[in-house]
């Protein structure tokens, strides 16, 4: 459940590529259409709530799901619609609370932030905010690893079972922190690659976690597998267009 990226690097396109690469069958509920390329988002158009509901019911009622991942939801109405739909799903729900694009373009209306906190996070099995989204949702600024645990606790207060704080915007290692409502904590670390072509990283990680959960992995193991996959995809990111190119979803096949 996410927006369509016409450039093919993020959004629904990244989700489906990731799910295929990890041996699962992805299906799509498109919430918005973007005009987007390597240099930015030139515009986006939300789909009507009834179109989102119809897509969801079509695939869930016939085919079923073993995991759900959400991305760009754009507006209050779409966040509320998706939250209502997910409340009736008996499967893990990975919420990537998309607020801005890789290029800094807003993908969530300011008035919808509170709705994400109050309606969407409570139905999430896992929330995967980056550091900008942590600030957007909690008001906390994460400037180093020492701040990540407090950020996770603040987000857990809104109701998800797990929170993964992504430290990709910090200096040094690419370190992420997974914290559960049960108090468990897991760090995931990877080398940082000098590669600016990282479009779609957040979508790819969240979709990879959902794919691993769908295959039956427990949350800490699902995140570990997804972290390994997205690290390879970042390492293989390639120049496409004049700006920030995408990660390589097919890196394991090359």
UniProtKB/TrEMBL annotation:
CDD domains for the chain: HMPP_kinase (cd01169)
Domain Pyridoxamine kinase/Phosphomethylpyrimidine kinase as annotated: residue spans: 5-248
Domain of life the protein comes from: Bacteria
Catalytic activity: 4-amino-2-methyl-5-(phosphooxymethyl)pyrimidine + ATP = 4-amino-2-methyl-5-(diphosphooxymethyl)pyrimidine + ADP; 4-amino-5-hydroxymethyl-2-methylpyrimidine + ATP = 4-amino-2-methyl-5-(phosphooxymethyl)pyrimidine + ADP + H(+)
Known pathway: Cofactor biosynthesis; thiamine diphosphate biosynthesis; 4-amino-2-methyl-5-diphosphomethylpyrimidine from 5-amino-1-(5-phospho-D-ribosyl)imidazole: step 3/3
Presence of keyword ATP-binding: yes
GO biological process, one term: thiamine biosynthetic process
Keyword presence, Translocase: no
InterPro entries: HMP/HMP-P_kinase_dom (IPR004399), PM/HMP-P_kinase-1 (IPR013749), Ribokinase-like (IPR029056)
One Gene Ontology cellular component: cytosol
Entry's Gene Ontology molecular function annotations: ATP binding; hydroxymethylpyrimidine kinase activity; phosphomethylpyrimidine kinase activity
Record EC number: 2.7.1.49, 2.7.4.7
Keywords, in A-Z order: ATP-binding, Kinase, Nucleotide-binding, Thiamine biosynthesis, Transferase
Reported function: Catalyzes the phosphorylation of hydroxymethylpyrimidine phosphate (HMP-P) to HMP-PP, and of HMP to HMP-P.
Name assigned to this protein: Hydroxymethylpyrimidine/phosphomethylpyrimidine kinase
Organism of provenance: Kitasatospora gansuensis
């Amino acid at each position: 459940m996410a927006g369509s990226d016409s450039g093919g690097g993020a959004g629904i396109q990244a989700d489906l590529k990731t799910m295929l690469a990890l041996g699962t069958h992805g299906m799509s509920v498109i919430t918005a259409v973007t005009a987007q390329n390597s240099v930015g988002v030139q515009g986006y158009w939300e789909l009507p709530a009834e179109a989102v509901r119809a897509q969801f019911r079509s695939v869930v009622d016939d085919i079923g799901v073993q995991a759900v991942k959400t991305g760009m939801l754009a507006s209050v109405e779409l966040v509320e619609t998706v939250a209502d739909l997910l409340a009736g799903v008996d499967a893990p729900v990975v919420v990537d609370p998309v607020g801005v694009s890789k290029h800094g373009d807003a993908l969530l209306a300011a008035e919808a932030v509170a709705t994400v906190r109050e309606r969407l996070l409570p139905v999430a099995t896992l929330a995967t905010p980056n550091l900008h989204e942590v600030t957007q949702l909690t008001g906390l600024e994460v400037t180093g690893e020492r701040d990540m645990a407090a950020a996770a606790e603040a987000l857990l207060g809104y109701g998800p079972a797990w929170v993964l704080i992504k430290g990709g915007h910090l200096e040094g290692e690419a370190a992420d922190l997974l914290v559960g409502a049960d108090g468990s904590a897991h760090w995931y670390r990877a080398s940082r690659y000098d590669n600016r072509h990282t479009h779609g990283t957040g979508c790819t990680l969240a979709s990879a976690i959902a794919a691993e959960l769908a295959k039956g992995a427990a949350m800490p193991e699902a995140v570990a597998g997804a972290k390994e996959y997205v690290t390879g995809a970042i390492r293989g990111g390639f120049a496409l267009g004049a700006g920030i190119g995408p990660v390589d979803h097919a890196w394991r096949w090359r």
